[in-house]
Amino acid sequence: MPVLVASDLDRTLIYSAAALALTMPDARAPRLLCVEVHESRPLSFMTETAAQLLTDLGDAALFMPTTTRTRKQYQRINLPGPPPKYAITANGGHLLVDGVSDPDWHAGVTARLADQCAPLEEVRAHLEQTADPLWVRKHRIAEDLFAYLVVERELLPEEWVKELAAWAENRGWTVSLQGRKIYAVPKPLTKSAAVREVARRTGAELILAAGDSLLDADLLLAADRGWRPGHGELADTEWTAPGITALPERGVLAGERILRELLKGSRGM
Question: DSSP assignment of 82-99, as one string?
Fold first, then answer.
C-alpha cells in the first residue's frame, strides 16, 4: 500500500525571501533554488538539499501538496521531482487530479459550506466594515470559498485579530494570521477531509503530514505522524498532539528538516 505524504507549502516546504530566516554568516548560507516566479520576479525558495529530498520523496511515496493557495497561485509553483498526481488547494475546496479540479469533490464541499456555516458574503462585509485602511493593503476573495486580507503587520492591532476570531467562531469560521495575511476560512473547509478522500482512493494505509499554521492543525491530526517547524502559528502557541513532532528549526532550514523526516518516515525508518 502506498504511503501518502500531505504537506503544506508556504512556510513549511517553500519560503519567501522574508521568511527564509537565514541567521548564519553569509558565507555559510545554504544554496537556494527558486521554485516560484510571480510577475517576473522570484518569489519562493527552498534549499538545493531540500529540492533533492523532495525528488527522492516523490519516488518513495505519494507526495501531495496541500495548500490554502488558490489553484492559480498553486500553479505558479514549480516543485522539483515528479508532478504530483493529487494536490489539495483552497484549503480543501479543490482536489486536483493531474492538475484538474474534481467537480464532484468541489460540489460536495460547497454544499457542506452552505449547510454548516455563515455565508461568505456576511464575512466579507464584516471585514470591509471593520478592517482599517491604515493597515489593510488588499481585500481578497479566494475561489468564492473564503476571504483574506493582506496587511501591514507592524500596524495591525492584536486586539482586532482576537475580536475577529471571536466573531468568526460564532459563525462557524476560523481566523488564521500567517505573515502578512489574515485568513477567514469556513470550519467545514478543511485539508483533512480532502486528504482522507485521497487516502480512500489510493488505498494508502500510512499518512504523513507537515504544516505550520492553525489551518494545518486538522491536517496533522488526520495523519499517522506529523511534523511542524519551529516557527508559525502552531509553534507560537506550542500546539502539539500525539504523533506530532515539533522541530526546532526555523525558516528555510526547517523545510529541509521536514523533508528529511518525511522521507525517513516513508521508508519506515
Answer: SPPSEEEEGGGTEEEETT
